[in-house]
Write a sequence for this structure.
C-alpha cells in the first residue's frame, strides 16, 4: 500500500488580500513575540506527533510506503530546514520513503536565501514550488504580494545550484486591473526561468477575504469570466508553444516526469495523510479533516484528544461522482467504460460542440478540448446530475 | 362550554323575535374587529376567562396570522340590557373585510337589521369600509358608529367622529368610543345595540324561508350552512329544500353557535344558526340561496341570489411536476369550502401540467395560493394574473379568453375588457400622485370628495387588468401606505389591446404571454426581455430573447454564450467541498425547466412572472 503525506504549514509573515487558505500570522495566533525558529520547532514537534498517530493506524508489519511528501501552506519556507529534515526523517523512520520519493516544498521567493535553500536540499527536498503569481508590479500590489522578480530568479538559481531537480512556479491570472499585456509580461518572465512545471490559477474572489470586501464595496472590479476564458487560452497557447503540455486543467509540465506526482495522487483517488490544522486526508474511501485553528490543534495533540473536525465515508455513487469530477480535469480523462449509457448520450452533445476530443473518444477515453476544459464544471454537472 | 347565563336566557326556537338583535361589524383589516368580538364573548359570559384565546372566532391559521376574516360566521350572545334589565339575544354576524368578498358581505348584511361601523380612532375610515358602509346603508341597516382603540396614544377620536358623522349623517356625539383591548365602552355598546337596532320582523306561520349567508366545509361534519330565518321555522326533523335548485336534503342537525356549536330544537323567526345535512360540497348549499321545507315549501325566494363570478385568472403549476395529482386533489378539497373558486386543467409548454384558476380578486387569489402551499405542502408557480377578455374576430366569431396564450392570432375585430369603479381614500397630500398613477393606468376620473379637511375620496373608472397588475403595490408605495383602495366591477369596455409574446431562441414561452394595451406593449416587451436576460443563466450557446406582437419583434436582448464554467483549483481539501456543491446542485437541477434547448431556473419564472417588487426580492435572494 502507498500513502502520500501532505504537511500543512499554517504560517505566513502577512496575509494576502485574496487568500482564504488556513494560514495565520504569528501575531494572529498571539505568538507575535516568539522567535521564528521557536515557532518552527514547536509546530514541527506537533507535526511529528501526528505522524506517530498516523503510524498507529497501520499494522506494523504492513506499513505503507510513502511515494510523495508535500509541504504546503501557508509559507513552508518559513520553517527551519532542520525541522523540515526532522519531519522527513520521522516519516521515513515510521513508514518508509519510496526510492524516488518526490518531496515538494512550497516557497515564497522572498524567504529563500543561500543558507536555507542549501538546508532544504540537504533535508531531502527535491522539488520546489514558488509562489510567483505575476511579474507585473501593479498586479502584485493588488494581490498584496511584495516580492521582486529578481528574488524569483535568484531563488530558482539557488535551487538549481543546490541540485533541486523539480522546479515549479504558481501564476495567478485575471487579477482585477491585469491587462492582456500584463499577463504576457508574466508569461515571458515565467518562460525565461529554469523551471519544468507551471500551475496557473484564475483568481477567485473567496468570500471572507479582504479582496471580497473590496469587490463588494466597488473599490475593485469583479473579475470577468469572459476575460478569464480569454486569458486561459493565451496561457495554454503560450505554454504549449514553449513545450509545456497541460496534464491537469491548471497544470503544465515540460515532460511526463516533471508532473507533480503528489497532486496526481489527489486527482487519481489515491491515499494520503494530511498533517496539520485543517488538513484533509483520504484513505480508501474515507475522508476526514483536522481542526482548523493551529493552537487548538496543537493543544488537542498535547491533551491526546482527537484532532479530527469532520469526516465522511464515500458510498459508490459519491465515489463515482468524484472520479468524474476529478478525472475530467486530467489529460488522460476518464475511461469510456466508466460511463453509463445515459452519460454517453450527454457526451455526444459535447462532441457536437467540440468540447470533447473526438479522437480520444473513439479510442475509448473522455478527454476535454480547450473549450471543453473551460466549461468542465458544467460538463460534470451534466454528467452526474 | 356554555356559560351559566345562557341557561336563564331565551332558548333557540323559543325566542320572541322582539328580543332578538341581529347585527354585523363593518371594519377594515386591523381596525380591531376580532379583539372587540373577543371582549363581547367575555362580557356576555359565553366564553369564560379560562377558555379565552385571542381572535377566538378566527378559525384558520391564516386568518389569525393575517388578522383577517376570510369566511364569516355568527355567534349567539345572550345579554341582559343595562337599560331595561330584560334578557336579549344578540346575534353577531361576522363579515369578511375584503373587497374580493363583497358578495359574501352583502349576504351577511342581508341577514342583519343593524351594523356597527367600527373604525380605528387612530387611522380613520378606509376605502373598503366605506364601500361596505354604503352597502349596509343600501340594505337599510341601522348604523351604529363606533371608534375603536381609544386607548392608543395616537387616537384622534374627535377628528374621526366628525368624519364618521359626516359620512352617515349623524351627530359626532353619537359615535361610541370603545377599546376592544381594555373592554372600555363595550357594555355600553351592547346596550346601544339593544336600544337602536330594530328587532327582526317575520311571519312565524308562513312557510319557512331562511337566507344562507355562509357555507363552510368541515372535515368531520360535512357542509355547515349558516342561515338567518326570515319566516316560519326550521326543525331538526325537517327535510329542507334549496329554492334555486329544488334539491332536497335531510336535516341532520340544526343549532346555534355560542360560540361553540350547540344543537337546538330548531330556529324560529329572526334567529340565526346553522344547519347540517351531510352535503359534502358547498356548491350544493350556496351563499345567497333560500332554504325552505319540503313539506310546506315557500314559493318566493328571498332576494339577492347570484353566482359568484371569477374576475381574475391565473395558471397554477406545481414546481415539481410529480405533484400535479396533489395539486388536483388540493383544489378539489378547497372548492368544497369555496364556491367562488373555479379551475380547469391546462398545459403549458414551459411549465408543464397545471390548472387555470379563476378568483374573485387578487386577495382571493393570494389566499388560495397560500392555503395550497401551506395546507397541502405544495410549491407552486403562478402565472401573472389576468382578466377575462371577450374577443370578436373579423369573421364574426366571439370567444372568451381567460388565458393570454389562447388569444386569437388572426384578425381581431374588437376586444372587450372588464372595467371597475375604483375608490381611493387617502390623505389629500397624495392627490397628485394618485391621479398620476390612475392616469398611467388608463383611468378616467369620476369624481372627488373631501371626507374631512385633509382626507379625500377619489373615484376612477379603471380597466380591471390595470388593477391586477401591481396597482395596489404602487398605490401603497406612492402614498407611504396611507391610501386604501376599493373597487367594484361595472361592466366591460372596448380596449385597444394586443398580445405580447416572449420568445426564447425563437420559441414562444406561453407562460410569459400577456395581453396589454397597445401603448404599453413596447415598455412591457423591453422590461420583460431585460428581466429575463438577468434571470436566465448563460448557456453554452447564445440565447436571443425577443418580445413580439404577432410576427413583429418589438424588443430584443441577448444572453451571450458562456465561455467559462470551471474552477481552476481542485486539490486535496477542495474535493469534499466541490463534491458537496455538486450534490447541492443536483437539487437545483430538478428545479430547472427546459424551454426548447434553454435551461431556465424556476426562480427565473417566479421572478419574471411576479410583479416588480416581488421580482426584486427574488433577485436579491439570488
Amino acid at each position: 500500500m502507498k500513502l502520500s503525506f501532505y504537511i500543512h504549514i499554517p504560517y505566513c509573515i502577512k496575509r494576502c488580500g485574496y487568500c482564504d487558505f488556513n494560514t495565520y500570522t504569528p501575531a494572529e495566533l498571539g505568538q507575535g513575540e516568539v522567535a521564528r525558529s521557536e515557532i518552527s520547532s514547536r509546530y514541527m514537534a506537533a507535526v511529528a506527533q501526528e505522524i506517530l498517530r498516523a503510524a498507529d493506524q497501520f499494522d506494523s508489519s504492513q506499513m505503507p510506503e510513502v511515494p510523495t511528501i508535500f509541504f504546503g501552506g501557508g509559507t513552508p519556507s518559513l520553517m527551519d530546514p532542520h525541522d523540515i529534515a526532522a519531519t522527513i526523517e520521522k516519516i521515513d523512520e515510521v513508514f518508509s520513503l519510496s526510492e524516488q520519493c518526490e518531496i515538494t516544498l512550497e516557497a515564497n521567493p522572498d524567504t529563500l536565501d543561500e543558507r536555507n535553500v542549501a538546508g532544504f536540499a540537504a533535508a531531502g527536498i527535491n522539488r520546489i514550488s514558488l509562489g510567483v503569481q505575476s511579474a507585473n508590479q501593479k498586479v502584485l500590489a493588488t494581490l498584496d504580494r511584495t516580492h521582486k522578480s529578481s528574488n524569483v530568479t535568484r531563488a530558482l538559481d539557488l535551487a538549481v545550484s543546490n541540485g533541486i531537480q523539480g522546479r515549479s512556479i504558481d501564476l495567478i491570472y485575471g487579477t482585477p486591473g491585469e491587462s492582456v499585456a500584463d499577463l504576457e509580461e508574466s508569461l515571458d518572465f515565467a518562460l525565461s526561468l529554469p523551471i519544468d512545471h507551471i500551475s496557473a490559477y484564475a483568481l477567485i474572489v473567496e468570500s471572507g477575504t479582504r479582496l471580497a470586501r473590496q469587490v463588494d464595496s466597488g473599490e475593485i472590479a469583479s473579475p470577468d469570466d469572459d476575460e478569464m476564458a480569454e486569458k486561459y487560452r493565451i496561457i495554454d497557447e503560450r505554454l504549449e508553444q514553449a513545450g509545456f503540455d497541460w496534464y491537469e486543467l491548471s497544470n503544465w509540465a515540460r515532460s511526463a516526469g516533471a508532473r507533480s506526482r503528489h497532486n496526481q495522487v489527489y486527482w487519481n483517488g489515491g491515499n494520503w495523510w494530511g498533517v496539520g490544522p485543517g488538513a484533509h486526508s483520504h484513505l480508501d474511501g474515507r475522508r476526514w479533516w483536522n481542526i482548523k485553528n493551529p493552537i487548538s490543534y496543537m493543544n488537542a495533540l498535547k491533551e491526546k484528544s482527537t484532532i479530527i473536525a469532520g469526516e465522511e465515508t464515500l458510498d459508490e455513487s459519491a465515489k463515482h461522482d468524484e472520479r468524474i469530477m476529478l478525472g475530467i480535469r486530467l489529460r488522460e480523462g476518464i475511461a469510456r467504460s466508466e460511463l453509463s449509457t445515459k452519460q454517453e448520450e450527454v457526451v455526444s452533445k459535447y462532441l457536437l460542440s467540440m468540447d470533447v476530443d473526438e479522437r480520444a473518444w473513439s479510442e475509448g477515453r473522455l478527454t476535454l478540448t480547450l473549450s471543453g476544459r473551460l466549461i468542465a464544471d458544467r460538463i460534470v454537472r451534466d454528467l452526474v446530475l | 362550554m356554555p356559560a351559566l347565563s345562557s341557561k336563564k336566557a331565551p332558548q333557540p326556537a323559543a325566542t320572541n323575535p322582539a328580543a332578538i338583535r341581529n347585527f354585523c361589524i363593518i371594519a377594515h383589516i386591523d381596525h380591531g374587529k376580532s379583539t372587540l368580538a373577543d371582549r363581547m364573548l367575555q362580557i356576555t359570559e359565553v366564553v369564560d376567562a379560562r377558555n379565552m384565546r385571542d381572535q377566538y372566532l378566527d378559525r384558520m391559521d391564516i386568518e389569525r396570522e393575517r388578522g383577517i376574516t376570510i369566511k364569516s360566521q355568527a355567534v349567539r350572545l345572550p345579554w341582559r340590557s343595562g337599560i331595561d334589565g330584560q334578557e336579549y339575544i344578540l346575534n353577531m354576524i361576522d363579515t369578511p373585510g375584503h373587497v374580493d368578498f363583497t358578495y359574501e358581505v352583502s349576504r351577511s348584511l342581508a341577514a342583519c337589521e343593524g351594523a356597527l361601523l367600527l373604525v380605528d380612532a387612530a387611522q380613520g375610515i378606509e376605502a373598503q369600509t366605506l364601500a361596505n358602509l354604503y352597502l349596509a346603508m343600501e340594505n337599510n341597516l341601522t348604523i351604529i358608529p363606533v371608534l375603536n382603540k381609544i386607548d392608543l396614544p395616537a387616537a384622534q377620536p374627535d377628528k374621526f367622529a366628525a368624519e364618521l358623522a359626516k359620512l352617515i349623517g349623524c351627530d359626532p356625539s353619537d359615535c361610541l368610543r370603545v377599546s376592544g383591548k381594555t373592554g372600555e365602552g363595550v357594555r355600553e355598546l351592547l346596550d346601544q345595540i339593544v336600544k337602536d337596532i330594530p328587532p327582526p320582523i317575520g311571519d312565524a306561520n308562513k312557510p319557512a324561508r331562511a337566507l344562507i349567508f355562509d357555507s363552510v366545509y368541515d372535515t368531520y361534519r360535512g357542509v355547515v350552512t349558516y342561515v338567518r330565518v326570515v319566516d316560519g321555522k326550521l326543525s331538526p326533523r325537517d327535510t329542507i329544500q334549496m329554492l334555486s335548485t329544488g334539491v332536497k336534503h335531510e336535516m341532520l342537525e340544526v343549532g346555534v353557535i355560542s360560540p361553540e356549536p350547540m344543537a337546538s330544537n330548531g330556529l324560529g323567526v329572526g334567529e340565526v344558526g346553522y344547519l347540517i345535512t351531510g352535503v359534502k360540497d358547498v356548491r350544493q348549499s350556496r351563499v345567497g340561496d333560500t332554504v325552505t321545507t319540503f313539506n310546506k315549501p315557500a314559493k318566493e325566494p328571498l332576494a339577492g341570489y347570484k353566482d359568484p363570478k371569477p374576475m381574475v385568472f391565473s395558471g397554477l403549476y406545481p414546481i415539481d411536476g410529480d405533484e400535479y395529482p396533489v395539486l388536483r386533489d388540493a383544489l378539489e378539497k378547497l372548492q368544497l369550502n369555496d364556491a367562488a373558486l373555479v379551475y380547469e386543467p391546462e398545459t403549458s409548454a414551459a411549465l408543464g401540467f397545471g390548472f387555470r384558476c379563476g378568483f374573485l380578486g387578487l386577495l382571493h387569489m393570494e389566499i388560495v395560493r397560500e392555503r395550497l402551499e401551506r395546507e397541502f405542502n405544495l410549491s407552486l408557480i403562478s402565472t401573472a394574473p389576468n382578466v377575462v377578455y371577450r374577443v370578436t374576430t373579423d369573421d364574426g366569431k366571439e370567444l372568451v379568453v381567460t388565458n393570454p396564450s389562447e388569444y386569437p392570432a388572426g384578425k381581431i375585430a374588437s376586444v372587450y375588457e372588464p372595467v371597475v369603479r375604483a375608490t381611493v381614500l387617502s390623505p389629500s397630500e397624495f392627490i397628485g400622485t394618485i391621479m398620476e398613477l390612475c392616469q398611467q393606468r388608463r383611468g378616467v376620473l369620476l369624481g372627488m370628495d373631501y371626507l374631512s379637511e385633509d382626507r379625500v375620496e377619489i373615484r376612477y373608472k379603471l380597466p380591471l387588468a390595470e388593477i391586477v397588475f401591481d396597482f395596489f403595490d404602487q398605490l401603497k408605495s406612492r402614498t407611504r401606505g396611507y391610501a386604501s383602495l376599493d373597487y367594484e366591477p361595472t361592466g366591460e369596455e372596448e380596449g385597444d389591446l394586443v398580445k405580447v409574446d416572449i420568445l426564447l431562441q425563437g420559441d414562444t414561452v406561453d407562460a410569459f404571454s400577456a395581453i396589454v394595451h397597445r401603448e404599453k406593449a413596447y415598455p412591457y416587451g423591453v422590461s420583460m426581455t431585460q428581466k429575463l436576460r438577468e434571470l436566465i443563466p448563460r448557456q453554452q450557446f447564445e440565447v436571443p430573447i425577443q418580445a413580439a406582437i404577432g410576427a413583429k419583434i418589438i424588443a430584443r436582448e441577448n444572453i451571450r454564450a458562456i465561455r467559462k464554467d470551471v474552477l481552476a483549483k481542485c486539490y486535496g481539501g477542495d474535493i469534499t467541498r466541490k463534491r458537496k456543491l455538486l450534490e447541492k446542485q443536483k437539487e437545483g437541477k430538478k428545479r430547472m425547466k427546459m424551454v426548447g434547448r434553454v435551461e431556465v431556473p424556476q426562480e427565473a419564472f417566479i421572478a419574471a412572472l411576479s410583479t416588480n417588487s416581488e421580482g426584486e426580492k427574488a433577485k436579491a435572494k439570488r
